[in-house]
Structures are given as C-alpha cells and as structure tokens.
Design a protein that fits this description.
Elements lengths: L1 E6 L18 H23 L4 E6 L17 E3 L19 E5 L20 E6 L2 E2 L2 H10 L5 E7 H7 L8 E9 L2 E4 L2 H15 L14 E7 L3 H6 L6 E4 L2 E6 L2 H16 L8
Parallel strand pairs: 1-2, 1-4, 2-3, 4-7, 7-8
Antiparallel strand pairs: 5-6, 5-10, 8-9, 10-12, 11-12
Helix pairs in contact: 1-4
C-alpha cells in the first residue's frame, strides 16, 4: 500500500493568519514545526494501518516548508515547485493507492480560516460544472481520473464539512474551529497529532485503487475581484470571458483542467499590483 500525502499549510495546526504561512516570517518558522507534526502524525497513522510506502508532496506556496530533518524516517518527501500536477504530483504514476489532503482549507469566497483557491486573493470563486470548487474538490477530481480515493482530510472544521461533498467516506480531522478568516479556536499539537494519527489509521482501510473515473467534460469558471484580471486570464487558449469579472473554459479531463487552471492563476498573479490588486 502506497499513500500520497498532499500537504498544504493553511489548514495546519495553529495556523490562523497570513504571517503563519508566508515563507521567511518569524511566525512561519514557528508554524513549520506544527505543520511537520501534523504530517508526521498522518505518516504514523498510515503505517499503523498497513501502509508500505508514504510519499509526502509539499503543496504550499514555495513547496519548501516542511522540515525534512524532522520528518518520520519511513516516509520520503517531494519538495519544490514546478510539478505537472502541482498539489497532487505523484498520483499519475499508477502506484498510489490512496491520497490524503492534509492541512487543506476551504475555497475562495467561502467561510474558513485563510479561505482561498490557489491565489491568496484576486480569485473570489471557482466552479466546476456549476458546483463550487476549492482546492479539495479540484484535486479530488484529478486523483479520481487515476483511480485513487481520498482517504483523509485535515484542516479547520469548515474544511471537513466541505470534504463531505467530494470525499464522503474519508475521515476528517478538525485541528481548529473557524471564527473568522483570520481567527480560530485551535487545539494543541499533541492533541491534533493523536487525532490525525487515528484518522489516518482508519483512512488506510479505504486505500484501494478503483477504476479511473472519466467524468468529463469539465467546465471551469473563475471569478476575480477586478475586471482587468479577465484580460490576463483570456490570454490562455480556450479561456473566454463570461462576465465582467469571470472567465470559463472546458476540457475533456481534469488533468487538462487543472493544468489550464495553473496557467490562468500564473498569468493573473503577474497582473496584480501591490496596493490596488
């Protein structure tokens, strides 16, 4: 049994505001340890449940946040940016039996601690075939095309509720309870580690590859907080304007869909000014 852990940081234990996750800040240095603790708890739980291999894919910002020197030595870590499938890189090779969404968060325009979708700001909503889609739903559609189930989700309590819509069987662990986008009632690392480990052990039972799900075509709509960002996004082939601040595109597969989304967000981020966005 091989497990892929897609490790994001906004949904990690103790994280509540931007400085906690911005590389180079004092708070980020502090929160890296709690982030690593969450990942180690999941690794331990999956091995408790019978896993033979665990690959941790760094999925936050620079994708260089976890402390390798403190990582459970039974696992290996894929770190760094510029990966074909970004947050779920590694699932495409046919040897992964289950994927964990660790440290995840809710999507742009919804309630949740540090809620966003790919870009910290600028995007106010994403929809796939008319359904609201945060990073969890987007990535679940990608891994389904490779026949891999989602077997664990961790983050704030709103993230767990969101996961019921795309991974209803996966155990969900709330490491904090949402108060506002920048505030939460947090559980201590010792407590969240125990809960994550137990949930991962149970989640390992779900790690059974199934037939790939071909659910396309997928129509993705993205809404921005400023109209000029539409001009940036529509440089991507097949992306068209469908509202004053909204674009859409359609792909046959979510593999193509997520890569197009990466292209859109990369171009949009290059058109954001410091003060006015």
């Amino acid at each position: 049994m091989k497990i892929l852990i897609s490790a994001d940081m906004e949904g990690a234990t103790g994280v509540t505001w931007p400085a906690d996750v911005l590389p180079g800040t004092e708070q980020w240095q502090r929160c890296r340890r709690m982030f690593t603790s969450d990942v180690n708890a999941a690794i331990a739980g999956f091995f408790d449940g019978g896993a033979d291999e665990v690959l941790v894919n760094e999925a936050h910002w620079t994708m260089r946040n976890l402390l390798l020197e403190e990582l459970d030595e039974r696992a290996v870590m894929l770190t760094g940016r510029h990966k074909a499938l970004s947050m779920v890189e590694g699932v495409q090779h046919g040897d992964v039996d289950g994927v964990a969404f660790l440290g995840y968060h809710t999507g742009a325009g919804t309630e949740g601690v540090l809620a966003h979708t790919y870009l910290a700001n600028s995007i106010t909503g994403v929809w796939v075939n008319g359904e609201p889609a945060g990073e969890g739903r987007l990535n679940s559609l990608v891994v389904a095309e490779y026949g891999v189930p989602v077997v664990l989700v961790t983050g704030d309590d709103r993230t767990g509720l969101d996961a019921r819509s795309y991974a209803p069987r996966a155990p969900a662990v709330a490491v904090k309870d949402y108060v506002s986008r920048y505030a939460a009632v947090c559980r201590p690392p010792a407590r969240t580690a125990a809960e994550i480990r137990e949930a991962a052990r149970r989640g390992a039972e779900l790690a059974v590859r199934h037939e790939p799900v071909q659910a396309g075509p997928f129509t993705v709509e993205v809404e921005f907080d400023a109209s000029h960002l539409v001009c940036a996004a529509t440089v991507v082939p097949l992306v068209e304007q469908c509202g004053e601040r909204r674009v859409r595109y359609t792909t046959d597969t979510m593999y193509e869909g997520i890569r197009a989304f990466k292209a859109v967000t990369t171009l949009v981020s290059s058109h954001v000014e410091e003060h006015y966005g």
